[in-house]
Amino acid sequence: NAGVTQTPKFQVLKTGQSMTLQCAQDMNHEYMSWYRQDPGMGLRLIHYSVGAGITDQGEVPNGYNVSRSTTEDFPLRLLSAAPSQTSVYFCASSSTTFTDTQYFGPGTRLTVL
Amino acid sequence: RKEVEQDPGPFNVPEGATVAFNCTYSNSASQSFFWYRQDCRKEPKLLMSVYSSGNEDGRFTAQLNRASQYISLLIRDSKLSDSATYLCVGMDSNYQLIWGAGTKLIIKP
User: Are B96 and A58 in contact (CB under 8 A)?
Assistant: First the structure.
C-alpha cells in the first residue's frame, strides 16, 4: 500500500493563479481531509469528506474548493492564489470516523508570490 | 482562547532523561484525545490515543485529567530519535479534531 499520496511536493504560484493539489489514498478510507499548517499554529481543517460525493467545509474554507468523485481521490483547488495561502498543505484519511487514526500524506509546500 | 494549547518549547533534554509536557483543552465535552508526532518537514503520525484510564506504550505514557482539562505525555529513558514535535489533538463542539501547535522536543547526547 502506498498509503496517502500528494502531488506536487513543492509549488510556487503567482498571486491570482489557480492550481489543484492532488491527494489519493489506497486504503479504502471513507474520511478524507485537507489541512493547512502554518508556523506557530495547529493544523487547521480546510475541507473534509465523509465519503464519495459528500464534502463539507472546515475551519478555513475560503479560497478553496474540493470534490470527491471517488473514494480514492480528494483534490483541493485553489481558485485565485493569494500570499495568505502560502503554507504547507496536508491531506489525511481515516477509516470510518475522524477519531480513527489519521494517515497523512507527505505534504505540499506552497508559496504564493 | 485557543481550544487546544501547548507550550511550544523547545524542551532540551539529555538522552536518558524523563520528560513530560502537558496540553490544555477548552471543550469539556471532548471525548477523544491523541498525541501525534511530527518530525521536521514531515507529516504527523499517530503516537498514541489518550484514554480516560491513561495509556502506556513502552516508554510513553499518556494521561487525561478531566477535572483540570489537560492531557499529558511522559517519555521515559529518552532517545535521540525521540527528537520531534509532539502535537496534542482534541475535539471541538462540532466533533472535529482540533490540533495544538505542538511542543518541540530536542534530545541531546
Answer: yes
Candidates B46, B91, B101; nearest CB to A42: B101
Dihedral angle sign, alpha carbons of residues A112, B4, B9, B10: negative
Q: Coil, strand, or helix at residue A83?
A: helix
One-letter identity of residue A85: Q
Contact flag B87-A41 (C-beta cutoff 8 Å) = no
Nearest to B43 by CA among B91, B99, B92, B3: B99
| Cis status of the peptide bond prior to B10, with omega within 30 of 0 | yes
Closest to B23 measured CA to CA, from B105, B86, B93, B106: B86
Give the C-alpha separation, A86 to A111, whole Å: 5
The 10s digit of each residue's pLDDT in A6-52 is 999 999 999 999 999 999 999 999 999 999 999 989 999 999 999 99
**Measured between beta carbons, which residues in chain A are less than 8 angstroms from residue B102?**
42
Calculate how close chain A gets to B46, using CA atoms only, in Å.
7
Q: What angle do CA A57, A59, A61 make, to 5 degrees?
A: 50
* Cβ contacts of B87 on chain A, cutoff 8 Å: 42-43
Q: Which residues of A touch B32 (CB under 8 A)?
A: 99
